[in-house]
Design brief:
12 helices; Purple Acid Phosphatase, chain A, domain 2; 3 domains; single chain; five-stranded mixed beta sheet; Double Stranded RNA Binding Domain; about 375 residues
Length: about 375
Amino acid sequence: MKFLHTADWHIGKKLHNFDLKYEEDDAFKQIERIAEEEKVDAIIIAGDLYDRSLPSEEAVKSVNEKLKRLNLVDKHPLLIISGNHDSATRLNTGSEWFKATNLFLNTKISGAFEPVEIEETQFFLLPYFEPQEVRNYFDRQDLKNVQETMQLIVEKIKEKFKPNMKHVLVAHFFAAGSTQTDSETNVMVGGLDAIPTSYLNDFDYVALGHLHDARASQAEIIKYSGSPVKFSVSEATSQKGVWIVDTEKISPKFVPLVPVHEINVLEDSFDNLISPSVYEKYSKEDYYAIRLTDTKVIPDVINKLRNYYPKILELRRVGEIQELKAEENKERDLTDPMKLVSDFFTEVTGEKLTSNQQKWVKNALKDVNKK
C-alpha cells in the first residue's frame, strides 16, 4: 500500500501577528492534490493539527473542513494522533464514530496498542504523552523518564506485531539526533525528552510529528514530515513538503510544497533596500526579516521600510545578530537551577519571570531540595 505522511498543521498559528489562513488553505490544497496524484491508500497526520489546546472557533471550523474534505469527499482513510499543542480531550470528541468513515483518531496511550490494519500494514497510533500518563497506564511509578516509558511502550506494541505484515509507528516526539527550528515549542530540559532512535529499529517506518523541518531526521525509516507552512524566520530556507511511502519497498519519497508567500531574509544597507533594483524583485505579499548593515541611526526606519516591504517580521542590525548568536552558543550553567528555570521560561514564552514568579520558583526549588 501507499500512504502520505504529514503533520504539524498548527491551524490558527500566527506569524508575528500575521494571519496565516491563506497559507494554510493553499498548503492543504497542495496536499490534497498530491494525495490524489499519488493515489494513496491512506493519509497520516502525526499530531499538532491545532496550534493551541484551546483553538479559536475559526481554527476548529478550518480543521473540520479539511478533515471532512480528505475523509468524506476524497474517501481517504485518515490516521491521526494528538500532538503536544492539541488538547487530547477536545480532539478525541467524536472518535468513537469516526471509525465508520475510516477516520482513525487516537489521543490516548491505551489506543497505541490497538493497531489499525489497512491492507498488509499495521499502524500503531501513539499520541504525544507525558511520562506520568504512561506510569499510570502500566501502574509503574518507578519509571524515571520518557526514555524508560518509551521502552515499555515499544515492548508492548511489538507484542501486537503480525509477522506477515508491515509495521508503521505514528508518533509525536523528539528523536535523538534531530535538529530543531525556533518555531517549535521547547519542551526539553537537558535533553531528557529525546527518544533514542535505536528503540525504533523494529518498525518498517516511523511517521513523526513535532519538528517542523522534514530533514530533521536523516534516518531512512524515521521521518518528520515537517510543517506544511513556514512558521518562523529560522524556517525561511526550509523546504516544506510531505512524504509518500510505499510499504512494498519502504523508500520514502519527499514531495515538496510550494509556498504561496515566501519568508525572505534580506541583509543590506537601508539605501540599497529602498532602491528599485532591489525591492522590485520581491513581492509585497511575502514576509521579510531585514538585517541592516548601516552603522548610523535611521529615524523611524521600520515604517520607512514598510513602504517597500509591508510584511516585516524582524528588523535587526547585523552587529546585534552576532551578539545574539554568541549568547545562544554560551554553555548553560547547570549548577544554578534558578537560572536554568529562568532561561527556560524566557525561551518558551519570550518573556522574563516577574518578581512574583521568581518567588514561586525559589519556593518550589526549596521544597524540591528538602525532599
